[in-house]
Amino acid sequence: MPPHGLLSSAGLGSRATPVVRQATDLGSRPARTVFDSPDRAAAALAEQRLTAAAEAGGFRALTVRRNHYLAARAELTRPHRFAAEPVDVAAVFLDALHAEVDPRPRPTWATILRADAAAPGSRAAANLAEYVRTAWERAAPQLTALVDASPGHAEPGHAEPGGRPAPLLLHDAGVFGRYDDRGLDVLFTLAERARASGRPVWVLCPTTEPTRPPRLDGALVQLVTESEWVALPDAWVTNRHRAADENTGVAGMAS
User: Residue 22: which residues within 8 A CB-CB, separation 6 or more?
Assistant: First the structure.
């Protein structure tokens, strides 16, 4: 069986388990709510930070538990929520790598897959590094164009009120952290463009513990400030802070 390193760039490690979400109350809520558990309070804080990030723009690294990764991605892209436009980074990179490899008689794709599993410093790994470099050179402009998209050119259904593009959600992005620093350089460039009034860019980082700093395939995601990191607790993924049957009190209500 050929190695699958290139084909598992999300770094999920295991099949995501189903997540049961609570019913969502889409009605208005008071701004100040007292939650009956720390989990719900943490989820509400994550919600507030995401809402602020969508409005302010810039770059955010979102950490989420591995087995909640798919549910979090679905929630972030829902039209009535953040309407983020999903971009499969692994697919973009693999398409670019195929474009470099396929037109040539050698190496074959099977050779590329074997090289992906080769020992660091080996000749096969060195040869692969050159193809990775040219693949990123091909893929980077595609990703940059998405960040630089003007409001009028955002994908249908992926724009905020007023025409501002909704966040770009980079998922299955573990490939950024593979193969030395080239992928991380591309990610940093995208983040810089987002910070410079480009489209908001969010990268979804799977982890065993969301409170740990964001990493992609083991490589630390470079942040300018700590506020660029938003941890998504399990309670946020399961929607406990927005459940219709939530039994909470409201601070400041008249008795």
Answer: 238, 239, 240, 242, 243, 244, 245, 246
